[in-house]
Structure of Cystathionine beta-lyase family protein involved in aluminum resistance:
Amino acid sequence: MNTVIQQWNDETLEELQHIYKQIDIVCEQNQAKVLDAYQAESISSYHLNGSDGYGYDDEGRDALGRVYARIFGTEAAIVRPQFVSGTHAITAALFGNLRPGDELVYASGEPYATMKEVVGLNGDQAGNFKQYGMTTKVVPLDDTGRVDVALVNDTITAKTKWVVLQRSCGYDDRPSISIEEMKYQIQSIKARHGHVHIFVDNCYGEFAEELEPGHIGADLLAGSLIKNPGGGITKTGGYIAGKESFVVQASARLAAPGIGMEAGATGAFLQDAYHGLFIAPTVVADAIKGAHYTASMLEKAGYETTPSSTTRRTDLIQAVQFGNAEDMISFCQSIQHHSPIDAKATPIPGPLPGYDGDVIMAAGTFVLGASIELSADGPVAPPYTAYVQGGLTFAHCKVAIRRALQSMID
Ligand SMILES: *Cc1c(COP(=O)(O)O)cnc(C)c1O
């Protein structure tokens, strides 16, 4: 290894010691929570066998829902391979619980790109919220990029049925919402408006902290199984957790009214879903250690990072501002070249729907598009920000980042 990179590595590991200790504590608490849930539900080997056909009486599937509910602090949950993605799970949750004439208030600023299409804030996709007579108001963030609770409270009307908090910044330039902040936001919205319910887009947030939105008053939450809670093992799917009546309403949208939670074959899904969930606290802890490491190493190389290397995390996303196209492209290509799969591929910037300029995407993953695995992407335009996320093991994050820096120096 180049001696400068070796020195940055040693300094980084020294400087992040306290943070890594804290991450280990959260990891153990979450591991205990997961273990306790499996024990409380008496998960046995027969729960790992899936069902076919209609999937009636699938005990493994139903127990998995109860395990998720325990872990996420909710009454019920539905965890299924039929959810195509996080966007699909969130969409089923919202469509299931709103009716024509209802209003949705996005309290955390602009929604994640795919959700803008769902609610009808971007284009006019067939079947979006607008076409069903449901409206969405987006409340701008305050000038520190945080939820403006007073403005949210003033925006809510008698027509507002649900308020959405998106925990992770996604690809937006704002801080993600910590559980502590979210607790205050939920309390203050509910204190002022007894009639509204709170939905949390929990994507990228699971197991990052000791508590989940369900523990602090969220009524419904959803996420993707090819992100945190799948532990890098689960091949597809999503989950919705929350108050039982709301989960039932959502399940009628996933399946059909009258079928709801009672059917849905699981095939080979359950073994991976239980296995992945069990190791998810460790995989998430490793990915978060990798995010701090990435930030620190790139700060030492002179780049700007958000969050900074020493900021406490509530999700996996690490943004790095490269300031020029050359460095950004070189970094992303190196991440690809030091991935376990498709390492010989070289990503090049190209157009992507929903983006103005060219986008570069580096991901050499076992599961297609799994962002719990190490990946780097972003629009190749000023300020040349790459979003780096995931990493199945901290060791892989360290090796890949060091090698990426090495090729940038070369
Ligand atoms: C990933 C993500 C989603 C859903 O994305 P999918 O690719 O559909 O799984 C929604 N919101 C946020 C904040 C996300 O990070």
